[in-house]
Write a structure and sequence with these properties.
This protein is of the alpha+beta class and 302 residues long. The protein has six helices and 16 strands.
Length: 302
């Protein structure tokens, strides 16, 4: 009876020892696998590779995929170097990243930022066009629209004329032919039969260019007819001599400025020898005035 009890005790004790040793080995294997797994995850070569680690009786088994041979070898080195590892079974396969994964990665990569585009340098504004300046001393040739005379015209009377020749500045048209001109009778004095002088003085006051009116300042055309004896002597030359008396200051002195423009056809009205003639300027007579002050006009095209 006693012998049977001792035998049972030995059996139970052996069973308990086996269980204790088995549990101890299992705990050591789990710790070993976790330690190797942790080092694989931390290593810059193997981290990110889907490799799993198991251990049994000190033998470590590696399973999963390595992206290349270098990664696979590095995983084996880490497992062999762990204290307590008796052997390493490498069951990993080398599987490079798929083209689809690379494409997905490229698709998820944001495009590089576009280089900033420099704005073109601002262009300097075009210079404003300069006004046209018709200088003083410029001749204005006009034809009067109505007859004027020392007998019938009145001082202060307004008369109209038309520009007979275009005016140019620096070779370019400034005032077109046909522009309407306004003038004034500065002096109109009828000549007496026996003595006294007849006088007619004219000046231009404004001009209309393309619908805009501009003030003018010109020299005065002044013609004077003296008394009977003086007059008779001058008019003996006929119409041409009479025309030379219709003059102005523009050429210098009375009786000198208009004669060349009026010509032999103008003449005077009345008897040639009685001294009873007056200064007459028929309609359409060309007269030349000179600007005494420059005329400023807007730029061309305005």
């Amino acid at each position: 009876m006693r012998t049977n009890l001792n035998r049972n005790f030995v059996l139970i004790a052996g069973l308990l020892l086996s269980l204790t040793v088995g549990c101890s080995k299992g705990a050591n294997d789990d710790a070993l696998a976790k330690e190797v797994q942790s080092k694989l995850a931390a290593d810059p070569v193997t981290q990110g590779s889907p490799i799993t680690v198991t251990a049994k009786d000190g033998k470590v088994t590696l399973r999963g995929a390595a992206k290349d041979g270098v990664t696979q070898q590095r995983a084996e080195q880490i497992a062999h170097g762990e204290p307590g590892v008796k052997d390493v079974a490498d069951e990993t396969a080398v599987i490079p990243p798929t083209a689809g994964a690379a494409t997905d990665q490229a698709a998820n990569t944001p495009p590089p930022a576009a280089a900033p585009v420099e704005a073109p340098p601002a262009q300097a504004p075009a210079p404003a066009p300069e006004p046209i300046v018709v200088p003083s001393g410029t001749a204005l040739v006009v034809t009067v629209d109505q007859a004027l005379s020392s007998k019938n015209s009145q001082t202060g009377q307004t008369f109209l004329a038309t520009l007979a020749q275009p005016v140019t500045v620096d070779g370019k048209a400034a005032i077109p032919k046909g522009s309407s001109v306004t003038g004034t009778v500065v002096t109109a004095k009828e000549k007496g039969k026996i003595k006294g002088e007849g006088q007619l003085a004219l000046a231009l006051t404004s001009i209309t260019i393309h619908g805009h009116n501009y003030s003018l300042q010109t020299g005065t055309l002044d013609s004077t007819v003296k008394g009977k004896g003086k007059r008779t002597a001058v008019t003996t030359g006929g119409g041409a001599a009479g025309g030379a008396l219709i003059g102005g200051i523009a050429g210098g002195g009375k009786g000198a400025g208009i004669g060349a423009l009026v010509g032999a056809g103008a003449g005077f009205v009345g008897g040639a020898l009685t001294g009873n003639k007056q200064i007459e300027i028929p309609a359409e007579t060309p007269l030349t005035f000179t600007l005494s002050k420059s005329l400023t006009l807007p730029p061309r095209g305005e």
